[in-house]
């Protein structure tokens, strides 16, 4: 009897990609929901989610801290009739109330936060549960075991890491191996043209340890759309104009705004919006599985989707490298106050690193608010 030939493995669909070394496939654009329940009302949020699903963008990203939990409720109501048609990701660790144990990565809070997310989402399981951030003085092993218990209980399918540095990704992967559980499947770093620091450790570590990369803020919280002008007050409807603290202490920097202008001129020569160029640059990195698009309006979502039609060129890549070198950030000496440097602990003087960074951030925010006003 002649043995039947083994069929060749079909090529992977260009529309979907495996998330790391898992068997889960996702589109290269994830719908970020942070605006839902805040600047974006529920009706508009539902329309955007429905439109995204109709376009085969079924990967949803949310978090327990978004809009005080309201975002999860809105997302849950939007997908209830077709829950299994979505890949649903949420996060824990950020503060969700008063007291030291209503945040962080203790077993107590991991389980309580996940149970609360399940209730708000109106579902019996979460597809991907992210650590929203690393807590440097808390034991990671306890949290990884707690997540493993949630997986075994059928309440979580996979887990991931958001805003984790390379060494933390490695530590979690080794802990998972030690405990005999599956490694995390996704890393979620901030990554865009004006902040390329993820290229130094986070992206290589994720690749080495088998995590897919689902990066966020491809437009640098709107700066890379070219909507801001150097030295000019922001428009009232913009995030900076609304006084959004996170953009004022991070992305709304003079150097980034200048670079955004250069990007906008180059994009105009290509006949595309600056936002299209910025998103295409992120997805031109083979280490990135998907980018999170966080629209406030339907028109913004439409623009994200349209950006996928652009074919990035070698000349485009060279332009970005000339503006911000590999692994660097647009602004010298910049540090995100939410993710301070932890490696300097002076024996004498200096004070707490987190406090120092936070103090400098407060000064920068005050200056930027004054300029915006």
Could you describe the 3D structure shown?
- With 373 residues, the chain is α/β, with parallel strands linked by helices.
- It has a single domain (16-372), classed as TIM Barrel, CATH 3.20.20.
- The protein is 39% helix and 12% strand.
- It contains twelve helices and ten strands.
- The protein has helices at residues 42-54, 70-79, 107-121, 140-152, 166-179, 202-208, 245-249, 254-270, 274-283, 298-307, 314-323, 353-372; strands spanning 16-18, 25-27, 29-32, 59-61, 87-92, 126-131, 156-162, 186-188, 212-215, 290-293.
- The strands form two sheets. Strands 3-4-5-6-7-8-9-10 form an eight-stranded parallel barrel, surrounded by six helices. Strands 1-2 form a two-stranded antiparallel sheet.
- Helix 2 (70-79) links the parallel strand 4 (59-61) and strand 5 (87-92).
- Helix 2 (70-79) crosses helix 3 and helix 4 (140-152) packs across helix 5 (166-179).
- It starts with 15 loop residues before the first strand and ends with a helix.
- Residues 1-14 have low confidence and may be disordered.
Question: What's the structural blueprint in terms of helices and strands?
Answer:
Blueprint: E1 16-18, E2 25-27, E3 29-32, H1 42-54, E4 59-61, H2 70-79, E5 87-92, H3 107-121, E6 126-131, H4 140-152, E7 156-162, H5 166-179, E8 186-188, H6 202-208, E9 212-215, H7 245-249, H8 254-270, H9 274-283, E10 290-293, H10 298-307, H11 314-323, H12 353-372
Parallel strand pairs: 3-4, 3-10, 4-5, 5-6, 6-7, 7-8, 8-9, 9-10
Antiparallel strand pairs: 1-2
Helix pairs in contact: 1-2, 2-3, 4-5, 5-6, 8-9, 9-10
């Amino acid at each position: 009897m002649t043995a039947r030939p083994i069929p060749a493995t079909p090529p992977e669909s260009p529309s979907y990609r495996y998330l790391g070394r898992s068997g889960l496939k996702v589109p290269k654009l994830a719908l970020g929901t942070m605006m839902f329940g805040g600047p974006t009302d529920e009706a508009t949020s539902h329309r955007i989610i429905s439109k995204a699903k109709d376009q085969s963008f079924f990967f949803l990203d949310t978090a327990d801290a978004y809009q005080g939990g309201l975002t999860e409720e809105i997302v849950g109501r939007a997908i209830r009739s077709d829950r299994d048609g979505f890949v649903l990701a949420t996060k824990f660790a950020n503060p969700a109330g008063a007291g030291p144990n209503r945040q962080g990565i203790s077993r107590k809070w991991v389980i309580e936060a996940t149970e609360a997310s399940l209730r708000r989402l109106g579902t019996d399981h979460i597809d991907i549960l992210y650590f929203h951030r690393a807590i440097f003085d808390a034991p990671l092993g306890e949290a990884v075991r707690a997540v493993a218990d949630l997986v075994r209980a059928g309440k979580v399918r996979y887990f991931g890491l958001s805003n984790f540095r390379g060494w933390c990704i490695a530590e979690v992967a080794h802990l998972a191996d030690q405990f005999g559980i599956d490694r995390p499947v996704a890393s979620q770093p901030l990554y865009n043209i004006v902040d390329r620091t993820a290229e130094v450790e986070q992206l290589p570590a994720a690749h080495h340890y088998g995590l897919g990369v689902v990066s966020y803020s491809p437009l640098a919280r709107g700066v890379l759309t070219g909507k801001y002008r150097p030295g000019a007050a922001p428009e009232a409807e913009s995030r900076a104009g609304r006084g959004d603290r996170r953009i004022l202490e991070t992305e709304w920097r003079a150097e980034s705004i200048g670079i955004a202008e250069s990007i906008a001129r180059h994009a105009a020569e290509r006949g595309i919006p600056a936002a299209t160029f910025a998103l295409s640059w992120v997805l031109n990195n083979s280490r990135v599985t998907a980018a999170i698009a966080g629209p406030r309006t339907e028109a913004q979502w439409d623009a994200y989707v349209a950006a996928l039609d652009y074919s990035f060129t070698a000349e485009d890549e060279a332009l970005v490298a000339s503006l911000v070198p590999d692994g660097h950030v647009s602004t010298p000496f910049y540090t995100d106050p939410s993710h301070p440097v932890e490696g300097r602990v002076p024996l004498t003087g200096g004070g707490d690193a987190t406090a120092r960074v936070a103090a400098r951030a407060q000064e920068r925010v005050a200056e930027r608010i004054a300029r915006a006003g």
